[in-house]
Amino acid sequence: MGSSSHFDVAIIGAGMSGLAAGIRLAHFGKKVCILERHSVWGGLNSFYKKGGHHFDTGLHAMTNWLEPGYRGPRVPLQRIYRQLRLSPELFQLEKQGHSQVIFGDVRLRFENGLERLASEIAREFPAEVDGFLRLAGDLEGYPEANQDVPFESTRDRLEGYIKEPLLREMLLAPLLWYGSAHEDDVDFEQFQILFNSIYREGFCRPREGVKTIIFALVRRYAETGGELRRNTGVSRLLVRDGVVTAIELDDGAVVTASQVLSSAGLVETMRLRSDQPKDAVREHEGQLAFTEAIHVLKRPMRELGFDAAITFYNRGPRFTWRSPEDRLVDLDSSVICVPDNFAHESPLAEHRLRVTHLAHNQRWFSLGAEEYEAEKARMVGASMSVTAGVAGDFRPHVTYTDAFTPRTVTKYTGHINGAIYGSPHKQKTGRTDLGNLFVIGTDQGMLGIVGAMLSGVAVANTVGSG
Amino acid sequence: MTEQEVKDIVIAIINDIAPDEDTSNLDGAVRLREQLDLDSMDFLDIVMELRKRYKVEVPEDEYMQLATLDGCVSYLKPKLEAAAA
Q: Which end of chain B is more exposed for a tag (fewer CB within 10 A), N or C?
């Protein structure tokens, strides 16, 4: 203890990637310390209590469902269990029944595995099913992790498989929603990962929410002997001669470490450095931001006849995946998540409905305090009426509603612009221009809970075996 | 150190790194990868644990000595005894 402690590795952030990296590095016998500014673990995927209700900050679904007894080529969730030495039951995952993509009056349902989606495509777009199956065949397997390959447009590549623009949009929408920090497109290699994670392996959800995952990781990290300091923000990384020499904390104390892994985000990490200006790498800032309304309901949505786990809704045929230009929030598209529709064994204690929309980050940041509250309430109301049209009128059953905006995200996670998916400029090897500074989490490449954990594991393997 | 003790050490490590595998009926002469779902990363973890727990070093070009449980015993027994001495 005291103001000067030295570690083999210091990790900024006790989110999914930081915790996974910490566990893995401890396996290598490293002396590790995780520094978390917040009082709670989880980072972008955390939890809180409000109005007597427990909420998850972000979790809709987890990807990469692993069928019990699966044997075959290693898939992501297996790698996580193995490398973190976690027993699969700890996550208490339940798989979805089905999800759906709705564009205007065209609907495609999908389950885990590609059969249902292929048969829905055969019904709605009979001429395209061969192209879809060829695409699915070509996308089998995962690209090698940690490789720096240049961005390749998925929209361009998809034209080689699918002629009907509406189907291309409908297949893209869920993958952009759950995995692209890039406006209007996604890197083709990332698309391959997302396609397998979301369509081939599919959605699942920890029964009691994200807390289950976080607690499993925190407990495992404690077992390995790693140190974790909460309420301990990093204010500056002191850089000299091409390395981080010291880590300055919010309270002025200093920690030193031979290696530093940062999950703060690529741009955010650059701006912590003593050798960089406060507005470094502006061009790499993420722009995609969201609002979300989380409703607590008296009755499960299933009783209103709505049984999809996740619904990707778009009003018209063309999907816009970018920050809305002239509005605070884009109500033309949304993701509607119903946790009850993952729980088939027994009903959940509380019924929820989560609805997400694309938002303009700077418009939300520039509102005054009163205006902000009013606009937030207006957003919730408008979102509710759009959603009622898609999912059935749930409004009479709402007992409590909470909401977040890009401002909430920045306040609690430090991610600039409220950009949950971080910078479009991914650092796939995790390396930076400093020899002992690495980027993990969202800005290392893969998104989502599984992606974040894999990121921590991959970078820890590089750092730990070196 | 008996052969059974060396076997127990290896099985304890496998149980830790692959808690979902059944190690109760392993055939010592058959390759571990044919009996358990282990990949090359898992073998790295076995080597990592041998180093951490018993200060035994296994150079990369000798990993194949660990392919079977019997192989582990004959390769690791002298090393574990030397490290314990």
A: C
pLDDT surpassing 50 at residue A40: yes
Q: Looking at the complex, report in whole angstroms how far the Cα of residue B23 sits from the nearest Cα belonging to chain A.
A: 15
Please report which helix (H) or strand (E) contains residue A198, including its range: none
Contact residues on chain A for B17, CB-CB shorter than 8 A? 82, 85
Binary contact (B17, A82; C-beta < 8 A): yes
Cβ separation of A28 and B41 shorter than 8 Å?
A: no
Interface residue of B39, B53, B58 to substitute, partner A, most A CBs within 10 Å: B39
Dist. CA A152–CA A228, nearest whole Å: 39
Four-residue CA torsion sign, B66, B68, B74, B79: positive
Place of tokens 């080689």: A160
| Cα–Cα distance, B53 to B47 (Å, whole number) | 10
- Which chain B residues contact residue A82 at CB under 8 A? 17-18, 41-42, 45
Which domains does chain A possess? 4-60+210-282+426-465 (3.50.50.60), 118-196 (no CATH), 287-413 (no CATH)
Q: Distance between CA atoms of A182 and A349, rounded to whole angstroms?
A: 37
SS3 (DSSP) at A245: strand
CATH 1.10.1200.10 fits B3-84, yes or no: yes
pLDDT for A4: 52
- Give pLDDT tens digits for A209-253: 999 999 999 999 999 999 999 999 999 999 999 999 999 999 999
Spell out which residues of chain A touch residue B43, defining contact as CB-CB under 8 Å: none
pLDDT digits (tens, 9 = 90+) for A386-441: 999 999 999 999 999 999 999 999 999 999 999 998 998 888 899 999 999 999 99
Residue identified by tokens 């495609």 is A108
Count of other CB atoms within 10 angstroms of residue A373? 11
- The percentage of residues in chain A with a pLDDT greater than 70, rounded to a whole number, is 98
